[in-house]
């Protein structure tokens, strides 16, 4: 198919040559720019068979690059990526020819239109048009088809049952919710397969050897293939070819299956036993034991199956391997001795143990299956020039490697590719890449050989010199400048230099004034580049050491002498203490403290100073003196206990009277008559103390009698639930000495008052005057039952509806009206509480439930029926095509397009401009004869019609020598009228097909030969 693409390109180029260059063809005028044919590349990506859908972080997690195709199109043209032909591209897990079989290919892959459009979109979400000044590379993404595999009762008459399967804590009953696995084409079942251990209701008839024998793929007939030896992938041969063959469920009569459903039926038998299955996969190296096929313990397992040794088990397909024997008979093992012989052939694999099922009998047996697989090998093609499209056949043995499946490709030894002759001396081989654009380099990948042929592409690029002028700095021993070789599009590898006394500020772009980059910036190489390091000199910081006596005041900032910066000037006030070294001026010792200053550009200077804390020598301290006095006070009068202190003095500290503290008040209570001893204390600066006591005599006070206040309250009634302020029961409170004291009344007992509950409640109020005299009064609150109106439930009106499958439909449109006697119209409060499983893609009847509630919580519910009808699609009518026959004299000009009269389509209208000449019948205007030409036209939906027209090339009559005559009568032909001197020749720029202009004859003949060769090649490929 790649050769077909090349032929199309050749034909397109030739056709453009005929139109633009040859005389007689439609060509551009001298003032018009000829249209450009722009080459573009379409890269194909395939969805991986196995990946974690929950952890897709990049395109590569879900898709793998599989190949490309090259095309050409007019500049500004938008490529039809959504209809791109996948033929000729090797897709994973299928034969190359399958991509050229649309019907079969559609069962395995489909183009992801949304993702493809998004990945090739401009800001306006349209696919990019072709441009002459850009690399026109597009990407198309193909997803794998998804199928449902249902595990249920078999369709044989006996030895089957409705299985109950337990998986991951969930139980599946075949009659209600059968175990169903949704798998994409090629995906590995793995633990999703229902193994014997997962089936919890295996029947038991008490017979010897009773057990499971595996699953059958069910078709419309009773016979089907056994799939009883996992592991399995969802392959075409084992599964997908049977999709839809079972039209209805066996366990659930009446349930239909789609063409993407594969039905599996369980089987059991009375003659089964334990069978151990070993999978031996060919290794990478020779000499592996046994027989170069080591056992893969991850795949091996025990199962229950038939004990008949004549049964040939179908050996499952394993990706990247060929089955040595497509079917295999088991070996009967009658004791542990038999398994000992088997274990001797299994290398380092864990030994097998005989399983006894019938104790005390010699007829007990196990089975053993050894399934061997040979590793497949595929071609790795080395493309030295990705600009030239190539078919697989274009690769010779010199640029083809044969690689076994699973081999790490980066570990292979690749030859140096031949450099294309048109590349300059400054272009060098950069490495191998997975894609022709050189985005995904082989050296950056851990990819192993897939199960299909792969092309890797040589990346040729211009070496660029990226120079870094260090300007006094150093990088890995270099102190002047360093130069690195990189390629356009790579990320600049910025180094990080160092320089004593300076802070590195970044790299200044020598070609762009004012542009500076950090070492962490991501800048793409674009030609030769030069950068110079920018430095900021550290500020100068001076500090000094100091000594201090333990306990003395000390300001650590006094150690800073000065801080200056070449750019910012004096920075002394910006110096910071960054480490105090544990400085404690109360403890003698040496402490190292560290200071730091930062200038405006971020450059730092750090210096340390030593603080020596010396032991302090002090004279003996004399205790202070304290003088206090006794006092008398009337009970209840104000009294300041500090008034007992007369004076406190200290020889060293002077007067300390204000520092005297009361350390014991002796229980002094000036409201109670009695004698109280209070104690005072004073402490000088050296810690010496003095303590003295004084006596306070509290005498009884004679006072006038106080009159108690009066309090007036009232009873009240209130409706249950109404607002009520209990303080409204207080009428007035008065006191002979204090006057009106209503604001001092307090509620001291609310009597359990609850205004939401009808009843009688006694509440108590109290008021106290300034002398402490109290009075209390009670009031009764009667809470009466409140009469309220009953709430009326709302009304709800809905309607049924019908909709065509696939059409848009809003369930809210079923709601007609919702009203409430109290709230009015409440249609906007209606909620859909049950959508009845509504699926607008599936015809059927669905019952939807709506509900509305008023402001007081009253609810009403109504149901409506939605009928989804099968959508009727109008048939497309084929177009009509009308052509006519014609005669032409040999050597005359003739345009085959003139044979087309008209082409029309019922849906598209006039489509004459879409008519194509698909067979020119060997038309040769220089040779008399009859030629049948075939035309074809297709409407927008692909319907085609073809018509033929006959062209008769007649021999041209030659006039007799002498005067020119009319062709038929022999009468002298009229002479042409004289032309104006300013009129250009009538035939300027155009010649008939007679060879009148011999200068173009050779070019025309060569072009016709090329055109004929292209047409013949195309016709051969079509056959």
Report on the structure:
By secondary structure, the protein is mainly β. It folds into ten domains: 65 residues, no CATH class; 109 residues, no CATH class; 205 residues, no CATH class; 87 residues, Immunoglobulin-like (Sandwich), CATH 2.60.40; 56 residues; 75 residues, Immunoglobulins (Immunoglobulin-like, Sandwich); 59 residues, Immunoglobulin-like (Sandwich); 75 residues, Immunoglobulins (Immunoglobulin-like, Sandwich); and more. Helix content is 6%, strand content 37%. The protein contains six helices and 61 strands. The protein is extended and about 160 Å long. The two termini are 13 Å apart. The N terminus and C terminus are likely disordered.
Descriptive tags:
eight-stranded mixed beta sheet, 6 helices, 10 domains, 1023 residues, mainly beta, disordered N terminus, five-stranded mixed beta sheet
Please outline the helices and strands.
Elements: H1 2-20, E1 37-47, H2 59-62, E2 63-74, H3 102-105, E3 109-111, H4 113-119, E4 137-144, E5 146-153, E6 164-167, E7 170-173, E8 179-184, E9 211-217, E10 226-227, E11 261-269, E12 272-281, E13 301-306, E14 312-314, E15 321-323, E16 327-329, E17 331-333, H5 336-343, E18 366-375, E19 377-383, E20 400-404, E21 427-433, E22 454-469, E23 481-487, E24 502-509, E25 516-517, E26 529-537, E27 540-543, E28 546-549, E29 560-565, E30 569-570, E31 576-579, E32 589-598, E33 604-614, E34 625-628, E35 631-634, E36 645-650, E37 654-655, E38 661-664, E39 674-683, E40 689-699, E41 710-713, E42 716-719, E43 730-735, E44 739-740, E45 746-749, E46 759-768, E47 774-784, E48 795-798, E49 801-804, E50 815-820, E51 824-825, E52 831-834, E53 844-853, E54 859-869, E55 880-883, E56 886-889, E57 900-905, E58 909-910, E59 916-919, E60 929-938, E61 944-954, H6 1001-1022
Parallel strand pairs: 1-4, 5-11, 12-18, 19-22, 22-26, 28-33, 35-40, 42-47, 49-54, 56-61
Antiparallel strand pairs: 1-2, 3-4, 5-8, 6-7, 9-10, 9-11, 12-13, 14-16, 15-18, 17-18, 19-20, 21-22, 22-23, 24-25, 24-26, 27-29, 29-30, 31-32, 32-33, 34-36, 36-37, 38-39, 39-40, 41-43, 43-44, 45-46, 46-47, 48-50, 50-51, 52-53, 53-54, 55-57, 57-58, 59-60, 60-61
């Amino acid at each position: 198919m790649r050769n077909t693409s090349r032929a199309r390109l050749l034909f397109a180029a030739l056709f453009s040559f005929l139109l633009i260059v040859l005389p007689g063809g439609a060509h551009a005028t001298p003032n018009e720019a000829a249209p450009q044919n722009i080459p573009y590349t379409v890269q194909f990506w395939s969805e991986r068979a196995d990946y974690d859908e929950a952890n897709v972080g990049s395109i590569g997690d879900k898709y793998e690059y599989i190949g490309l195709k090259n095309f050409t199109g007019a500049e500004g043209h938008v490529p039809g990526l959504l209809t791109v032909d996948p033929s000729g591209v090797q897709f994973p897990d299928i034969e190359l020819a399958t991509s050229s079989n649309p019907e079969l290919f559609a069962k395995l892959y489909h183009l992801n239109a949304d993702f493809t459009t998004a990945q090739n979109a401009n800001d306006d979400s349209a696919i990019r048009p072709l441009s002459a000044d850009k690399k026109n590379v597009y990407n198309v993404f193909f997803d794998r088809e998804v199928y449902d595999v249902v595990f249920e009762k078999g369709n044989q008459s006996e030895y089957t049952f409705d299985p109950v399967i337990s998986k991951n804590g969930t139980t599946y009953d075949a009659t209600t919710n059968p175990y169903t696995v949704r798998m994409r084409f090629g995906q590995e079942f793995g633990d999703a397969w229902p193994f014997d251990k997962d089936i919890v209701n295996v029947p038991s008839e008490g017979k010897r050897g009773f057990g499971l024998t595996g699953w059958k793929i069910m078709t419309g007939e009773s016979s089907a293939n056994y799939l009883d030896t996992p592991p399995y992938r969802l392959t075409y041969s084992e599964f997908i070819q049977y999709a839809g063959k079972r039209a209805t469920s066996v366990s659930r009569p009446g349930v239909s299956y789609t063409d993407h459903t594969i039905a599996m039926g369980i089987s059991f038998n009375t003659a089964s036993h334990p069978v151990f299955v070993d999978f031996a996969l060919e290794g990478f190296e020779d000499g592996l034991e046994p027989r170069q096929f080591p056992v893969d313990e991850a795949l091996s397992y025990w199962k229950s199956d038939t004990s008949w040794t004549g049964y040939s088990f179908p050996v499952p397909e394993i990706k990247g391997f060929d089955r040595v024997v497509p079917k295999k008979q088991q070996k009967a093992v009658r004791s542990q001795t038999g398994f000992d012989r088997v274990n001797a052939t299994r290398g380092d694999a864990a030994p097998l143990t005989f399983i006894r099922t019938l104790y005390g009998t010699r007829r007990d047996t196990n089975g053993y299956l050894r399934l061997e697989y040979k590793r497949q090998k595929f071609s790795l093609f080395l493309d030295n020039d990705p600009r030239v499209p190539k078919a697989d056949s274009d690769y010779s043995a010199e640029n083809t490697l044969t690689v076994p499946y699973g081999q790490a490709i980066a570990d292979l030894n690749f030859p140096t590719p031949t450099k294309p002759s048109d590349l300059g001396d400054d272009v060098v081989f950069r490495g191998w890449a997975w894609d022709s654009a050189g985005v995904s380099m082989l050296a950056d990948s851990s990819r192993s050989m897939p199960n299909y042929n792969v092309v890797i592409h040589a990346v040729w690029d211009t070496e660029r010199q990226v120079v870094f002028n260090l300007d006094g700095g150093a990088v890995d021993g270099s102190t002047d400048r360093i130069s690195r070789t990189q390629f356009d599009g790579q990320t600049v590898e910025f180094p990080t230099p160092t320089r004593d006394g300076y802070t590195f500020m970044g790299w200044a772009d020598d070609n762009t004034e004012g542009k500076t980059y950090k070492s962490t910036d991501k800048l793409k190489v674009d030609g030769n580049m030069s950068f110079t390091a920018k430095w900021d000199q550290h500020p100068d910081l001076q500090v000094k050491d100091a000594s201090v006596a333990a306990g003395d005041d000390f300001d650590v900032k006094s150690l800073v002498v000065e801080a200056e910066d070449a750019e910012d000037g004096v920075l002394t006030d910006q110096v910071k203490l960054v480490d105090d070294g544990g400085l404690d001026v109360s403890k003698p010792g040496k402490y190292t403290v560290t200071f730091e200053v930062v200038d405006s550009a971020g450059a730092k200077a750090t210096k340390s100073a030593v603080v020596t804390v010396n032991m302090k020598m002090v004279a003996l301290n004399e205790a202070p003196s304290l003088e206090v006095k006794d006092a008398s006070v009337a009970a209840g009068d104000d009294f300041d206990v500090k008034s007992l202190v007369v004076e406190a003095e200290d020889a060293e500290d002077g007067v300390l009277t204000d520092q005297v503290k009361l350390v014991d008040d002796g229980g002094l209570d000036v409201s109670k008559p009695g004698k109280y001893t209070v104690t005072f204390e004073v402490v000088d600066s050296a810690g010496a103390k003095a303590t003295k006591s004084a006596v306070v005599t509290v005498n009884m006070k004679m006072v006038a009698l106080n009159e108690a206040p009066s309090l007036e309250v009232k009873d009240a009634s209130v409706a249950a639930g109404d607002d009520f302020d209990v303080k409204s029961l207080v009428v007035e409170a008065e006191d002979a000495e204090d006057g009106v004291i209503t604001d001092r009344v307090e509620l001291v007992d609310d009597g359990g008052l609850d205004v939401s509950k009808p009843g009688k409640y006694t509440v108590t109020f109290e008021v106290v005057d300034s002398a402490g005299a109290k009075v209390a009064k009670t009031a009764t609150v009667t809470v009466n039952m409140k009469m309220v109106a009953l709430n009326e439930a709302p009304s709800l009106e809905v309607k049924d509806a019908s909709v065509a499958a696939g059409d848009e439909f809003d369930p809210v449109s079923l709601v007609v009206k919702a009203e409430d006697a109290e709230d009015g119209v409440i249609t906007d409060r209606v909620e859909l509480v049950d959508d009845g499983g509504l699926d607008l893609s599936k015809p059927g009847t669905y019952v939807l439930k709506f509900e509305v509630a008023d402001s007081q919580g009253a609810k009403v519910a109504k149901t409506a029926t939605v009928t989804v009808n099968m959508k009727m699609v109008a048939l497309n009518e084929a177009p009509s095509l009308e052509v006519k026959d014609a005669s032409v004299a040999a050597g005359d000009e003739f345009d085959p397009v003139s044979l087309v009269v008209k082409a029309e389509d019922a849906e598209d209208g006039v489509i004459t401009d879409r008519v194509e000449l698909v067979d020119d019948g060997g038309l040769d205007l220089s040779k008399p004869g009859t030629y049948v030409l075939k035309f074809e036209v297709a409407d927008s939906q692909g319907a085609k019609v073809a018509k033929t027209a006959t062209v008769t090339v007649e021999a041209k009559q030659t006039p007799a020598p002498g005067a020119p005559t009319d062709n038929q009568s022999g009468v002298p032909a009229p002479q042409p009228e004289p032309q104006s001197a300013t009129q250009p020749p009538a035939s300027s720029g155009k010649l008939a097909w007679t060879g009148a202009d011999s200068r173009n004859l050779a070019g025309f003949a060569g072009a016709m030969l090329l055109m004929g060769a292209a047409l013949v090649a195309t016709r051969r490929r079509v056959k």
